[in-house]
Amino acid sequence: MRASDKAYATLREDIIEWRLTPGTVLAEVEQSERLGVSRTPVREALSRLSAEGLTTAAGGRGVVVTDISLEDIDEMFELRETLEGKAAALAAERGEHAVFEKLHADLLRAPELISDTDPARHEYYALVGRLDEAIDAAISNSYLAQAMRSLRVHLVRVRRLAADDAPRLHAAAVEHAAIAEAIAAGNARLAEAATTMHLNRSLSHVKATHSQH
Amino acid sequence: MRASDKAYATLREDIIEWRLTPGTVLAEVEQSERLGVSRTPVREALSRLSAEGLTTAAGGRGVVVTDISLEDIDEMFELRETLEGKAAALAAERGEHAVFEKLHADLLRAPELISDTDPARHEYYALVGRLDEAIDAAISNSYLAQAMRSLRVHLVRVRRLAADDAPRLHAAAVEHAAIAEAIAAGNARLAEAATTMHLNRSLSHVKATHSQH
DNA sequence: ATGAGCATCAGTGTATACATTAATTGCCGT
DNA sequence: ACGGCAATTAATGTATACACTGATGCTCAT
Predict the structure, then answer these.
(1) pLDDT, tens digit, for every residue of A104-148?
(2) Mutate to test the interface with A, among B93, B143, B153, B199 (most CBs of A within 10 A)
(3) Structural domain span for residue B46
(4) Cβ contact B79–A47 (<8 Å)
(5) Residues A205 and A179 placed together within one structural domain of the fold
(6) Is some CB atom of chain B closer than 8 A to the CB atom of A72?
(7) Residue A90 and residue A57 share a domain
(8) Where are the alpha helices (DSSP H) in B2-38?
(9) Do B142 and A75 lie within an 8 Å CB cutoff?
(10) Spans of chain A below 50 pLDDT
(11) Which of B78, B82, B151 has the CB atom closest to A82's CB atom?
């Protein structure tokens, strides 16, 4: 593994997990010492992070971890609704029905995964990730897929803030199942509507839990 | 101006203007000699270009200029329709009407700019650029604006291929004017429809001129 | 003659020394 | 005492030397 990859992965993880909080300045020398590599791979890593929007170049004086405001969350979900709504519709038109029928069935059994002892809900999130990947593959549009991937990075940060509880995850699984079902049925408008509903409920939940802080 | 900025600007320009054709490998030492800077800023520039998608990292062996296939153009316009349609609708809801009334009036006078002697049609493209900027500002959504900016880089490359002729530019100006008018009227659905029409006509024109080669 | 293995080389990956810039602090003048 | 200018310093920006990896081509053995 290249040193720049290591630096990038570590910093990215630290930012997404909120160990590095917004406003923190990431100085090259400081991070190179912390990560045990030289400045060059650190520069490369910071450059990649800034391109993703996780950090922002602060005019000559290092890069700072990007903040996420309440308006940011609204904006992100507005774009997300546009992109994922279109993606769901395209998947309904172009996807393999069998793939989404399988996902639909798996998602209906998701409560088993949530009631599991794993506090991080790895299996549940892996299943939802499989739905995302299936949609990505079905749309046959690398530019749209790329736009969704860029956005997902920021959404993961938001999710870490929301602290999904079991009731919300159960409801979300049902919503995901509805999306998969609509795609499997080849119903583009229904798939888009199901996505819109799911995202609006997610946003409401995020804002509700966020307002408690 | 920093050396890395210079390297980035030069390479970007060369790729967009098709002086560097798809498949060309950009070796660090080679480019550093050509641009008169050391390898470090060249690396930085290539990194930025790859993040934008203008180049693709070819597994350890340098980066290559990204190709644009016919399918790519279809995919780009599919995403563009999604993003710009939404943007036009939001601008109709949130924008300053006066700004778009002014743009509407200016766009109706665009034929004067096209019949001008300037072969590059700087003034015309500057006017269309002002419409884009006005929409960007009106939507109040930095994530959506960012997604459109990322896409525009690739669209400029496509436009260079299409070689817009005067008749098409006249028609496009009318289409742009219709978008500005709908936004000024605060009619979101009309603005989205006008955008859809414009983009479909643009795509047809691009594909028509492209198929001649 | 052909195939496999080794050696050479070209290229990127990393470290570090040096240049440059911008901010902060201290001093001087008013 | 306050404000501005200058010097210092700490950070990034750049260049370059070195390391390492992957590829290509040559040689030797079968």
Answers:
(1) 999 999 988 887 677 778 889 999 999 999 999 999 999 999 999
(2) B143
(3) 3-65
(4) no
(5) yes
(6) yes
(7) no
(8) 3-16, 28-35
(9) yes
(10) none
(11) B82
